[in-house]
Amino acid sequence: MGSYGMLARRALLTENPVMVQIQELIRGVKDCVSLAQGVVYWQPPKKALEKVQELVWEPSISRYGADEGLPELREALLRDENKLHKSSVMVTAGANQAFVNIVLTLCDAGDSVVMFAPYYFNSYMSFQMTGVTNILVGPGDPKTLHPDAEWLERTLRDTKPTPKLVTVVNPGNPSGTYIPQPLLQRISDICKNAGCWLVVDNTYEYFMYDGRKHVCVEDNHIVNIFSFSKAYGMMGWRVGYIAYPSEVEGLAAQLLKVQDNIPICASIISQHLALHSLEMGSNWVTEQVKDLIKNRELVLDALSPLGKDAVKGGEGAIYLWAKLPDGYHDDFEVVRWLARKHGVVLIPGCSSGCPGHVRISFGGLVEDQCRVATERLKRGFEQLVNEGMVP
Ligand SMILES: Cc1ncc(COP(=O)(O)O)c(C=O)c1O
């Protein structure tokens, strides 16, 4: 025992989590500000927190609950949110666990699946660690980063056996790109015609800018994933949910097997907080999100030394996506240099399948801190462009 050879290839062959590497980097740098992690700076609604404070002594809080989630929360989610009329809900310990549930329920080891670059690194890892290692990564439009529907149609037609599942994040992580409704519908139609699942991660459904409105698609080949983490500032409470088609025979039963063996149920107190947060209404969330517009402007200004064409996304979510100047293919090296030389941290694009790029998050800092971070970032990029990575 104790030998590396005794560890599962499933785990060994999975990428290292980029956030863990970035946290290590941050620990090693004095006075570092982070535009790296995908978080928001706010806490859950005060009223909702006060209500759960009273609930802690209630015996049911300390017991297991129904695997699928608190009935009153599930009902509220179907009634109030997203107008998904043909779906059932399973509450999970966050959207990441929701995704793992879905992969374990829909995919067998050896199946092929489809994602689009730049992709969400945790989804990629979820495939890898469940043996779904034939991951076909499709291109985005060079200007908009929208998934290339023509490529998808060709790939689903020509790949045998047909890929099992296509997944998109809307609006996107790491790019913040929003897939407009007609394109999302087209992707859905292509999947349906090919007999392939479509999994849409709607973690940032309320994070939409410039008058855009988030829309979900629903059908018997579609599974939608949602999260309370960002919208209600509930990252540490771990609540998300799956909305899956009610009419598909056996799906609920198979999902339950997975759920019963991972969390059994999402934390009960957290589900109560989610329910009370929902009672505040989605307006509460959009009010918080409005404040991020200023942060996004600050980041856009910090990215200006890279040139206008280098910057993409930011239509939704909490991210902008930027191409580094030619010659900087090793984006992790640039990220380390920015941290050590300029005291600001980003996420390297290689973790999303796109070396030579970086992801910048504008959700985690209040405006004053964001200003500090973006001033450093702008100085860093000016130096990178004019002088290179001077030590
Ligand atoms: C697209 C996407 N999905 C899922 C998650 C994970 O969310 P949760 O905290 O609900 O697990 C994140 C978090 O960054 C995300 O960006």
Report on the structure:
The structure is a single chain. This protein is of the alpha/beta class and 391 residues long. It has helices at 9-12, 18-27, 46-55, 71-80, 95-106, 121-129, 149-158, 181-194, 251-261, 268-279, 282-290, 292-303, 331-342, 367-386; strands at 33-34, 87-92, 112-116, 134-138, 165-169, 197-201, 222-227, 240-245, 311-312, 319-323, 344-345, 347-348, 357-361. The strands form three sheets. The chain has a seven-stranded mixed β-sheet with strand order 2-8-7-6-5-3-4, sandwiched between helices. A four-stranded antiparallel β-sheet has the order 9-10-13-12. A hairpin with an 8-residue loop joins strand 12 and strand 13 (357-361). The mean pLDDT is 96. Bound molecules: pyridoxal-5'-phosphate (PLP). Pyridoxal-5'-phosphate binds at residues 38, 94-96, 120, 169, 173, 201, 203, 227, 229, 235, 240. Keywords: Aminotransferase, Pyridoxal phosphate, Transferase.
